[in-house]
Amino acid sequence: MTATTTAPGVARLLAALDGVFDPELDESITSLGFVAACTISADGDAEVRLRLPTYFCAPNFAYLMAADAYDAVISLPGVRTVRVLLADHFAADAINSGVAAQAGFVQAFSGEAAGELDRLRTDFLRKAVLAGTDQVCRALHASATVPAGHAGLERLRTLTLAEVPPSPAADRLRWRRAELGLPAGDDALLLIDPASGDPVEPDVVPLHLRRARLTAVSIEANASICRGMLHNRYRSAGLGESVRSEPRPHKEKR
Amino acid sequence: MYEKDGERYFVVDGHMHYWNAAPDNWVPGQEQYAKGWIECFYAYMGLAPPETHWPIEKFQRYSEDDLMKDVFADGHVDMAIFQPTYLKEWYKEGFNTTERNALMGEKHPGKFVYNTRFDPRDGDAGLDELRRNVERFGSRGVKLYTAEWNAGSRGYKLTDPAAYRCLAVAQELGIKNIHVHKGPTIWPLDKDAFDVSDVDHAATDFPELNFIVEHVGLPRIEDFCFVAVQEPNVYAGLAVVIGGLMHARPRFFAKVMGELLFWLGEDKLLFGSDYAIWEPRWQVEGFVDWDYPDGAEFSEYPRLSPAGKKKILGLNAARLYGLEVPAEFRLPPEAGTPAAQEAARLVEHAPGS
Q1: Which CATH class is domain A8-108?
Q2: A198-to-A128, A157, A182 alpha-carbon distances in Å
């Protein structure tokens, strides 16, 4: 296999991998730094090397990311074969051979798993919808589209997606909702129950928003620990990684 | 004890270890897991201030003198609670067993609380061991590692009938505090192994026991908070929150603290250094100095007073464990009772955001 990471084909691979998300962190595996390397030969044989923050990262999520990476790359025109290789993980062999065989999770972990991962993925998409709702609501307050405080609550409750100013966060929220089969059209309400799709009753709007915020904080905190662990483990950026350092607080009191 | 700005803090380290993870303690054939485990821990140390990092050799096996210096002489800790983790599938003498902790601790009377453990998969022999440990070491708490591997099983749930039997026996023996680790885990592979719903059921069915969820259910803080607001006997262990975020990600730390103070309140949070992953000194000093950064996103969160920090750093754990707190460290009556169960309430009508 002849390839370098600067070949034009690699950029295309990376763009495809941008669309593969860590379901738990709701963030692309490239921006998280999980793609250690990827190559493609002149004949269209692609190889993607993945790495994770710890040796014991949950194998179910690891499997989903490896399988999704396979699907994303194999669907590119001109790609003939794909090898996905997760490294430095206790279940790497099972995951790599399972993905290679297109075997599905249950077969990859023969005797240890009782079901496929659709339900897990759905649960985490629901969390992503809640967290995305928080993002969108914050932007609405920041831009004064919706007043802060009590006056804004009723407005938020009746706001439709068409009334939300366009933004990447708003697009993403719609996409997530559509993926779950939740209302995602222009006339759909912004605030819905992420399980049923029902409108949120007026008296539970504050609690709903608090839950959305909490879910966003949880995902962000988890992602920040994962980034720190990955950095400590490898001391190098992944391919396509967005290197973010958290801005230090203005008045850090220590 | 720690003193700052005229305030005196009685510090209980609610979660610390005396482990041996050096290569001569690795089980033959399981070396990759033993090595993977301690290296995973070691990467967490990287989230601490650089001047507190250790070489990996010391991290694998540190000495009694290291511990006494880091935790008590330098770390401001008055009492420390050993949380054992056995992992005998990977470590010959275990990772840090009740015996190992107590043999060391007994040389330093009055400094340590020896929690023990049970494993429902060990059956009657496990319960006999629990009885012996409670009798010998006076344990009033257990650390449960539900993800631990055991003879082909890769974990259990608190709601398993065998686990309920153990909880009932533990309660009879005088155990009060159930520390549940919800952390890196492996099984069941196809479910969300961080799921905290088993704590919810167990806490309801064992109202006399306190359930301290270590690492606040990270990475499922939201699920944990929803459980904790409904169960008056569920508490949060802050190991990993302070150690993993306060230095490395201060803004996320502030948000997580804000959420925990909002959903659970200062009576439900227990400091734990997770030593030797992180030394207590920088955590205690940093937490006493801590306040929210500037920024609108922090403005809605409950503030934390010195009285609240005193509860979190020691008084809450002292209450749960019945530890004697010298008079000069206690709070005035108007500051409330530390670790009060009634402090957690479901937030029905939060102020508008």
Answers
A1: alpha beta
A2: 17, 12, 9
- How far apart are alpha carbons B243 and B283 in whole angstroms? 7
All structural domains of chain B with their residue ranges:
15-321
Of A105, A232, A249, the CB nearest to B250: A249
Summarize pLDDT for A89-106 with one digit per residue, the tens.
988 999 999 999 887 787
Nearest Cα to Cα of residue B247 among A214, A212, A232, A131: A232
Closest residue of chain B to A213, computed from CA coordinates? B259
Report whether the peptide linkage leading into residue B219 is cis, meaning its omega lies within 30 degrees of zero: yes
Note the pLDDT tens digit of each residue in B125-173. Answer: 999 999 999 999 999 999 998 877 777 777 788 999 999 999 999 999 9
Q: In the sheet where A35-40 sits, what is the strand order?
A: A35-40, A45-50, A81-86
Which two structure tokens, joined as six digits, stand for B147? 């993800």
Stated pTM of the model: 0.90
**CATH 3.60.21.10 for domain B15-321:** no
Helix (H, G, I), strand (E, B) or coil at B256: helix
| Mean per-residue pLDDT of chain A | 88
d(CA A206, nearest CA chain B) in Å: 6
Q: How close is the nearest chain B Cα to the Cα of A245, in Å?
A: 9
Give pLDDT tens digits for B28-38: 999 998 999 99
- Between chains, do A152 and B352 touch, taking CB under 8 Å as contact? yes
- Hey, what are A58's tokens? 């949950």
> In this structure, what are the phi and psi dihedrals at residue A142, rounded to the nearest 5 degrees?
-65, -35
CB contact under 8 A, B186 and A203: no
Distance from CA of A211 to the nearest CA of B (A): 7
What's the burial of B329, exposed, middle or buried (CB within 10 Å: 0-12/13-18/19+)?
A: middle
Q: Which residues of A touch B191 (CB under 8 A)?
A: 60, 120
Taking the C-alpha atoms of residue A142 and residue A130, their distance in angstroms, rounded to an integer, is 19
List CB contacts of A194: < 8 A, sequence separation 6 or more. Answer: A126, A127, A129, A130, A133, A180, A182
Q: Is the dihedral of CA B80, B85, B86, B91 positive or negative?
A: negative
How many angstroms separate the CA of residue B25 from the nearest CA in chain A?
Answer: 19
Domains of chain A by residue range: 8-108, 118-217
| CB atoms A58 and B290 under 8 Å | no
CA dist B86 and B126 (Å) reads 13
Q: Tally C-beta pairs within 8 A across A and B.
A: 172
Contact B222 A221 (CB under 8 A): no
